[in-house]
Specification:
heterodimer, A: alpha+beta, Dna Ligase, domain 1, 2 domains, five-stranded mixed beta sheet, 21% strand, B: alpha+beta, Immunoglobulin-like, C8orf32 fold
Chain lengths: 504, 249
């Protein structure tokens, strides 16, 4: 996380900017005031005890962190108003549709390069562009079935995308477990607020998986493929398989024969049609990717190329959420959707462009400068906190190799009241909503993963650096719409719908 | 040209089954016409035709009975003509720009780049590539080496390289000059021989001409005696037989 707030008052999502709760959230403000702190702490401790018991000990931010501990949970929810959520969802749907269109194009016709929207070397020189799967197309043309779009916020309707996760985004089990804890520990909140349900997520995910099964398969067999119980997100893999009622398998449980994927079971071989894989491309198929690897399923990509299995998310997706591609996302969205991006990026100057470089060199003390190929920890300058020597060192690096850098402004990230050492206090948050794409369209799950920087003033929400999580409430407008306390089954999906909020 | 190639693979231990990707089917181009072609294996197996991301024809081979050896036999006839190494009329899945990238087996290397720049000097692109090809040919003794997995930089520093290393050095050198370059697996009928045997060489791309073959083992461009099978960023990607690590008997 690289964005810092300096000298500006952050927007508080519950308390607004003037200390009194935002009008729509007055009831929540009262709840915070009237519930004794000791009671809030007791509930928080109860939730954490449950998480410890369940063994929810994985890291949200990638594979670098293998330590076995729970991520702190904060009892105060983060709340989205119905209209805020509706607008945010529109932006997310547009962005994810563009990501899918981009992947379909870049591994196919590459129109976007022929039309000069992206520099070709940005794709062909990028290790995330996988030539091994060029020309292959996933069933139904869906590539990014599950996206976790990381957002930050600076005002009621001011959301910015920090990162698009289109490979194997994790964290959805937090969304579900946090909600379950809140329902149990703070039932009064669900009586007072119409909170959209999230616990249909496993059903929606399974529906999405089934919808992208190869043509002609009427009752598809779906599985979750995990690297195994040593993986830091293993809890989530088994949780999801369990709640969808499908098998959790490892590579050794799968075998490819005659371009068809089979699962070995005690009752014999069972044909597999859809694989939700939580392993990286490199370890999918040793005949195609890491040839030195004995992991993976030999022949899996041949089965995929033959159209006999859907792989969720599709191999090769890394090019869509790559750091070097990120700054072009507004152009990519415009190219495929025909309109301006409804959900902006954090403003980004690409130093490869002379005009941008000039601006960046003139404003170094205000900016965050990052390496796009992010090798090693040397690659970042946080202008407002950097010494003049550090700034000068970066100036030299920028002039020498401008194409390797981007720069972003420092933003005043929003806060949410959070239980701190000395009572409730504002803490910075970010947000990862989950967006599902099946053959019948895109849907935004009404909720997500809110991460909170527990240290005062900190903007680092990483679990390894004092970050925690919160439940994320999406409020619904229309009476009669379904709430968390009612039946959970939402049935099938409809064309490009935005679930929760005002749109159901 | 007649191809009759039989390879027997023995496995370290008995295998319960086998999944292999065979890149053993020559593509057609203006100067390479396949008259007849077949792949046989010496046991019950299922074979499925397909294509990899580089556009190569791939035959997936599936054997589900226990085995400790497998013989693959390729027989066919291919008509070739001499185009002075220039590839004409081939179908390309990926653009030349992709073949500037490094791989684990062909990493960018300062020593190889310095060598390439010294040889290329002020020459035009095509002449520079011919010069680099000749220089690789002259500089190294090509012979089997013990350690097939040593880093390419180590091979370059050594005077003796195996055939794949020689071609990989050419690829790294060509890319360091800004020329897209790729590995070609195939067959070659040596002078005075009546049958072709497995062989590997390189192709590099020059704007305005196209892909051009360079054979560092011969120090010149391929002519009629070369039959192309598959191309990729390095030898591993173009491997005619990919599967469990096997030793050719």
């Amino acid at each position: 996380m690289t964005i810092v707030a300096m000298g500006t008052v952050a927007f508080d999502e519950i308390m607004g900017s003037d200390g009194a709760a935002r009008a729509e959230l007055a009831a929540l403000g009262r709840w915070l005031q009237t519930t004794p702190e000791s009671e809030l702490r007791r509930r928080q401790a109860a939730a954490e005890a449950t998480f410890r018991q369940l063994g929810i000990t994985f890291a949200v931010y990638g594979e670098s962190e293998a330590s076995e501990r729970i991520i702190p949970f904060d009892i105060v929810p983060r709340v989205f108003l119905p209209d805020e959520w509706a607008r945010l969802s529109e932006g997310l749907v547009q962005r994810v549709e563009a990501i899918n269109a981009f992947l379909d194009d870049i591994y196919g016709e590459r129109r976007i390069l022929k039309d000069g929207v992206l520099p070709a070397e940005l794709i062909f020189g990028n290790p995330q562009f996988r030539p091994e799967i060029a020309g292959m197309r996933p069933p139904h043309g869906v590539w990014a079935h599950i996206c976790g779009i990381d957002l930050v916020r600076t005002g009621p309707d001011a959301f910015f995308v920090l990162e698009d996760n289109a490979r194997t985004p994790s964290g959805v089990s937090y969304m579900l477990e946090n909600r379950e804890a809140m329902l149990r520990l703070c039932p009064e909140l669900f009586r007072n607020f119409r909170v959209a349900a999230v616990d249909s997520y496993p059903d929606r995910l399974l529906e999405t998986m089934k919808s992208v099964a190869p043509e002609g398969v009427s009752a598809p067999t779906c599985v979750v493929l995990t690297p195994g119980h040593y993986n830091s997100a293993y809890y989530e893999h088994s949780f999801l398989a369990d709640s969808m009622g499908i098998e959790l398998v490892e590579a050794a449980d799968l075998v490819v024969d005659d371009d068809i994927v089979w699962m070995r079971t005690i009752a014999g071989r069972v044909k597999v049609d859809v694989i939700y894989r939580r392993v990286d491309d490199d370890y999918l198929d040793p005949l195609v990717f890491r040839r030195d690897s004995m992991l993976g399923v030999p022949g899996l990509i041949a089965a995929y190329a033959a159209g006999n299995v859907a792989i969720i998310n599709a191999p090769g997706n890394g090019i869509a959420d790559d750091k070097a591609i990120y700054s072009y996302m507004p152009e990519i969205v415009r190219y495929y959707s025909g309109g301006a991006a409804k959900l902006p990026n954090v403003e980004t100057w690409r130093c490869r462009e002379p005009q941008a470089l000039r601006y960046v060199l003139d404003h170094l003390p205000e900016l965050v400068v990052k390496l796009v190929d992010g090798s090693g920890g040397y690659g970042m300058l946080v202008g407002p906190t950097a010494s003049s020597a550090e700034i000068e060192a970066f100036r030299a690096a920028l002039v020498a190799e401008p194409h390797r850098y981007i720069a972003q402004p420092t933003l005043a990230l929003s806060t949410v009241p959070t239980m701190a050492d000395r009572g409730l206090a504002p803490r910075h948050v970010d947000f990862r909503p989950f967006v599902l794409t099946g053959s019948r369209g895109v849907q935004v799950v009404p909720g997500g993963l809110t991460r909170v920087a527990l240290r005062e003033g900190s903007l680092v929400v990483n679990s390894s650096q004092g970050g925690g999580t919160k439940d994320s409430f999406v409020l619904m407008e229309a009476p009669g719409a379904q709430t968390q306390s009612q039946s959970q089954s939402l049935g099938g999906m409809t064309q490009v719908q935005t679930l929760g909020g005002a749109a159901c | 040209m007649t191809i009759e190639h039989r390879a027997v693979y023995r496995f370290a231990g008995a295998q319960a089954g086998l999944v292999q990707a065979l890149r053993l089917t020559p593509p057609t181009s203006d100067d390479q016409t396949v008259v007849r072609w077949r792949i046989d294996v010496d046991r019950d197996a299922r074979m499925r035709p397909g294509r990899d991301g580089f556009g190569n024809a791939v035959t997936m081979l599936y054997v589900d009975a226990p085995l400790d050896r497998l013989a693959i036999e390729v027989t066919g006839e291919v008509l070739t003509s001499n185009a002075h190494g220039v590839l004409r009329g081939a179908t390309e899945q990926l653009p030349p720009a992709l073949f500037l990238r490094a791989t684990e087996a062909t990493p960018a290397d300062p020593a190889i780049a310095a060598f390439a720049h010294a040889v290329a000097a002020e020459l035009e692109p095509l002449a520079a590539l011919h010069a680099v090809n000749a220089a690789v040919h002259e500089r190294f003794v090509v012979a089997p080496v013990g350690d097939a997995s040593r880093p390419l930089a180590e091979a370059f520093a050594d005077g003796t390289v195996d055939p794949v290393e020689a071609t990989h050095i050419f690829l790294v050198a060509a890319r360091s000059l800004g020329r897209p370059a790729r590995y070609v697996s195939g067959y070659r009928q040596a002078d005075g021989e009546t049958v072709a045997s497995p062989h590997g060489w390189a192709e590099a791309y020059v704007e305005g001409i196209g892909w051009i073959g360079f054979d560092p083992l011969l120090g010149r461009s391929p002519e009629e005696a070369h039959v192309r099978l598959a191309t990729a960023l390095d030898a591993g990607g173009a491997s005619p037989v990919a599967g469990v690590p096997v030793e050719e008997a």
